[in-house]
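Researcher: I need the complex structure. Ligand is iron/sulfur cluster. Inputs:
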Amino acid sequence: MIIRFKINEIECEVNEEKEDITILQACTANGIEIPRFCYHEKLTIAGNCRMCLVYVTNEEKLLAACGIPLDENFDDESIETEIDEILKAREGVMEFLLINHPLDCPICDQGGECDLQEQTLAYGLDTGRFYIKKRAVEIKTFGRLIKGIMTRCIHCTRCVRFLTEIAGVNELGVLGRGYNMEIGTYKKNVMIESELSGNIIDLCPVGALTSAVYAYKGRPWELKNIKGIDIFDTLLTPINYQVKGGEIFRILPRINDRINEEWITDKVRFHYESYKIIEKIRKETPSYKIQANKFIELTWKTALKMVFKVLLNKKNKVDLIIGSKINSTNLRIYKELMNRLGSKNYITENGLMFKKFNYDLRENYINSNDLYNVDKNDLVLLCGINLRVESPLLNIKLRNVNFGDDEIESVKKIGIIGNKFDWKHESEYIGATLNSMLKLFEGRLPYCQQIKKSKAPLIIVGPSLLTRISLTLQEMRAIFMKACNLKPENILIITQGANFGMALEEGLFKEKFSIGGNVLYSIDSNEVQVTNKINYVIYQGIINDKFENKIDLYLPSKHYFEDFEGDREVYMNTFGQRSEIEKLSISKGNKIKENSMIGYIQLMYLNNKEMTRKEKEQKDIKLSYREMKKEEKRKIKVNKYLTINNIIENYYMTDINIRLSKNLMITGQLRKEKKIMEAGIWKNRKCI
Amino acid sequence: MFRSLLKRTTFLNQLNKSNGFNRNYFKQSTLTRSDALSRHVETEDNNEHTPFDFTQENLVKVEKILAKYPKQYRQSALIPLLDLAQRQNGGWISLRAMDKVAHICGIAPMTAYEVASFYTMFNRTKIGENFVQVCTTTPCMLRGSGEIIKTCKSHLGIQVGETTPDNKFTLVEVECLGACVNAPMMCINDDFYEDLTSASTINLLDQIKNNKPTKIGPQTHRKAAEGPQGKTTLLEPPVGPTCRDDL
Ligand code: SF4
Ligand code: FES
Ligand code: FES
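Model: Output:
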């Protein structure tokens, strides 16, 4: 049935069968703004703030627009949002909200982006009438990252809904009632144990939940937005750096419905602390080690000469390892450099995990799935991946998978091979060893039948499985497709590192690579094991904490977001989606050079010619799987009883930037020890 | 100069007082009610390590309660189970007891905390053996509940919200308990005592203190809620059904 109605004299119609929308959504679609506090697009409807009241003809009372679906009752009715009655009602609601709200806007971090402030200005009464006692609630601690000044809370319950529905942790709740109602953890000093807890800071419409790291640092109107990406995750979530005067003040998500919706992980939200520390402790000039712990400073000219002395020495065997944040321009330059030197020993640090890889076809390293409709799947099998830690954003997408009505029955729609971890739905735990994986390949498990039966299964293969089995990705895919009757879209392969896909795009991979040479040239790569065989280490990057004392020649280079020629650079995620990043400069030292600049100089030195930039043709190549099937016949040789453990032990330790962010580190440690936070942690933070 | 400043502040104070408000006065949530604080208070007898488990006979009751609800909605048993736990625990419900109930219902502990803190009849801090709840809502107040509360305070030697040192009594004020016809009234544990006077209150408290039997219901000669002329309506016996038999 088509419903025709009017909103403020605008004629609208809604097809009831096709669209299922509320009054508020219809108003927004027609460009009419309705003030709100508790309603949020991505959360369930609570309807407890009453700010969204509208007038509907033939209704006795005003209706809360956020919670009322448009159905046949609205046919021929008209909805009014600007009449006096509504304005009066809004004033009333605002007045009630402000009774107990403290007047500390000048010292509140939300000031300037506070919904309550803005809406008071737009819809509130111009004078207050309450001179009675104000209620106060004690300050609560939710960990090192989130500051909870709960007197400011207006009880919209967005934070509670986010944590229970989306993040899947039940650590916040609505306690007490009436005058005594509080949002809190009930027990004292409970840390919110979610990788996505930082999002409640963005969700909170007032300053009750604010970032502890950003506390008293800046005001939103002085900050400039610069586009960036979440470099710690293969999804490459779009983010915004908020900067002022060459310093990152905070990081906020950029909305993208295909990737992150509105959320970002805590890791990227709070890691910017480290840049400041890095700025303080890094070396700003090229330097050379003469003794243990004793460096002399060099000029760039001599430093580069020394590099060439090493690289061009015929006796040396050079391995080039590139870090996971380097962009594709640099990947191309350094590959070219190594090629000119006649060597093929180059790889990215994440590529090191894989023994074999066929990067001829794009299908082999890029997933053809679309995250947008990931929740349409009706069965999920996780192989060797702890989604919560390895890809928290994908995890929350999958947590909302609609399992239909049989969710209640005992059919378990989630299978896990590898380490156990908590999920919303009950899951079937298949096994931790490779043996169960092999059984699955051969179709011997009862679970295979379930996979075959389901309409849209999704199999997620994690890096820990890929590294323990001597199969290439495409072989794995082919086996799966054969064993369980699947299509390529049903398999999702999660790798690690931001530039893994891009490196393969540039052909920067070598099969069976092992660090065997005596010279290691590391470009911003920390996660490499430096053996005793290596007698010369060139480290070109920012800061190193893994093999710092083994570095012989240090070349300071810039961060990944400072290091490209134009204003923008494009990164590609594991789904082949591209995210743009903009240039941001925070490095102060003028002797710090871009990786690309160093690379070009080296190339020019090599043959005094401009490098011709070869771009690999970026067409979508669709090829049949015939070739792969040939390879499939090879036997799989593995130790059957190897367990598929997680690659990432501690979520808060995976990258140098994270290891250097104090608050993230402490959060990680606290969580590791499962320790309840000590009281008084705020006192040493000089926050309040 | 200091003196003039002092004068000025006292003047301001007086002004505030005479206007009947004080602008800068912030207040913590009230402590005196049975709903107490909206959070857990760590004490010796109620902390993370205080053990709680249902007794054998109560476990049978738990099964019975769970059987009333469809299997997939077993969280509906939350309130009856919390009540059972509270009874077993001596009138109050500890942190671990809530965790236990939540576990039985298959929900997060937080949900149990939310429910227990919402309903004022769940006590989340330790109370005395006898929980004296004096009604102070309008009908009772008009019939003299102020006097009753005063008597309780002076006789037990405690304030509202406190427990006697011998752990016998806890005194609280409550809202209407639905016995307004026989106001003023109070409720001690599960029993109602109505038509109170100061004397009968003292008498009652003494009897309870010495573990003597008490008269439940009106403390005067009134029978149930009859008026002064006795029963005038509903003279014939009630027709059934009277109550659900599964309750
Ligand atoms: S803390 Fe913020 S998000 Fe949570 S209920 Fe209060 S106002 Fe809403
Ligand atoms: S937005 Fe509708 S009630 Fe809060
Ligand atoms: S007012 Fe006291 S019982 Fe109703």
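Model: Summary of the prediction. Confidence is low (pLDDT under 50) at residues 1-34 of chain B.
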